[in-house]
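Page header: ASSEMBLY MODEL / two components / 713 residues total.
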Amino acid sequence: MSIAAEALKGFEKITPKSIPLVEPLSRGHRGCQGCGEVLALRMAAKAVGSAMIAVSATGCMEIITSPYPQTAWEVPWIHVAFENTAAVASGVEAGRKALIRKGRWADDGAKVVAFAGDGATADIGMQALSGALERGHDFTYICLDNEAYMNTGIQRSSSTPWGAGTTTSPAGKKSKGQTTWKKNMAAIAAAHNIPYVATASPAFHLDLMNKVKKAITVPGPAYVHIFSPCPTGWRCAPEDSLKTARLVVNTRIFPLYEVIDGRYVLSRDVKKPKPVEDYLKIQRRFRHLGPEDIAVIQKRVDQDWQRLMALVKATNPEASAE
Amino acid sequence: MARRVGLEVSLACAEAAKLANVDVVAAYPITPQTHIVEHLAELVADGHLDAEFVPVESEHSAMSACLGSSAAGARTFTSSSSQGLALMHEILFIASAMRLPIVMAVANRALSGPLNIWNDHSDIMAERDIGWVQTFAENGQEVLDLTLHAFKVAEDARVCLPMIVNMDGFLLTHVIEPMYMPDQSEVDAYLPAFAPQQRLDIAKPISMGMVGMPEVYTEAKKASLEALLGSYEVVKEHWAGFAKQFGRSYKPIESYRAEDAEVLFVTMGSLGETCMTAIDELREQGVKVGSVRIRLWRPFPVEDFLAAIKGAKGLIVIDRALSPGVPTGPVATELMSLLYAKGLKVPVHNFVAGLGGRDVTRADFKKMLDKAREAFAAGGEMTCEMVGVKE
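Prediction written out in full:
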């Protein structure tokens, strides 16, 4: 299987000199100060460009960009509900496919791109996403992961990391906040054997934009999971948004990689990782954690990194033989 | 020229969607809707219908995909039943609010629990307020005709609303009936290709499904309501056009031997046929009884209904669903509210019959009539009873 590899032959990378000037998501939306999610969304939209049909899940990005009669979208945009973004996108794709085949619509080259938060992806929208990935629709699904239900007031999701305090996983005398480990959505997407899966962070903007560009270039379903800092929900300083997005990668908590036709490729080898504490201590959602808790997180992060390295090795037999 | 054929009604429904040259079918299987979508999948697989068949992983996604496909400008069809319709519930309201002319065939079936795959109207009675145009078919020919009519009405620029054609599960969907199958050219003359009022187009970007703050929500709902109420004239207009094209005419309310009837049965769906047979037998015995059947359920044809019951001294309303916790079934409740609003004091006797596939026979109609007439004579208050309950 080399669908993605074939499609990405001769891929023209976005470089600092060729960052698209187009802004499919215009200024004047109602995002919070320091919102890392809308920043990631803007970068992703720039990478796709004007030939995009955006499908949005209910959530922060939907409400801040579309209070009728105002819209921040310069491209066709549709929102239906919370859990069905992938299904709506698959309908848009199917409708266009039929009309183009039947000669009733010219192939305008538009890309169908779905945007959804972590709750809309890893929790309530998981079934619709799995179905759409399995059916092989030609679309890109972008999860903007801010690790909780921020739009409704910071409730935990299955993407909330262990130890984080949220309004439904509060820290207390008998609790250390979230008691479960973050669901690995990228791995779940990759398990559908789709051509392209990637993780990204807005602190590495060229990497993010190139991954989104690759995702829309590859035929069939593609999934991009973008770490999206939420200063409001994470109780950190708005100006620390990108610092958080950088530290999460440099501590190996959120590794950046691609899964191209099932082959794991590390985007950024973090050879000298910073201690997880550096990341945790600037966010008050982790303020109740003691040294022993931080050690638990560090151990888990180290294990997950090793597992990822093993996957890279296992899926790149030629490279390891060299 | 139309051909006279014998066909399973589910297949006739699918053939109607094929004759409408649908672009997308997104569906999930549920008994007793399965034959409709199986046949469509087959038509696509054999190249008889050029459409995308999207075999979604749930009814929730079926309806969601339909919204996406309709927003892309494609003629979109789906079908469901019972639990599947209930699973779509959330999205049904959004479909009408977004003014997307999706057509859905609903094979009416009981809602669980207990689990029951057989016919009644509890599934659709839970979806009365979704803002869709809705019709009820009585027989196979009507299923075929109303399905074609649904595309014409839904896509009309004056309407732009999704539409449901209700058909009784098994009692209609699984029987083979004689019917006239129109030619493609006849259908094309009646139903031109879908020309959407708005669509997702990168050349003309629009935002669809935006947030409605308190300042605009009421107005948005009012606009949808007006579209639904306004669809009444369009429904009739396209039935008139249908009669011209195909020679079969339909009305919002159908009457049978009602002119001089003292008592009228009020039914919906396939029950109307049994009812007419029972009326014929009763008429032979000299009983002045007739029936009215509600074909257009949403928007409710108020004036047609009032005209149809004019002169009746009592109504026997048969519900195929319960409305737990209020005195009568859903249809009777609505009709009585209507009568009250019009200042009409026609006595109403309500029966809930045929739940979960329980047969309603001619004999049942006679029993219902006897009971109702006793009640009318006694001048008693309106009552509701469940028919055939084993104590």
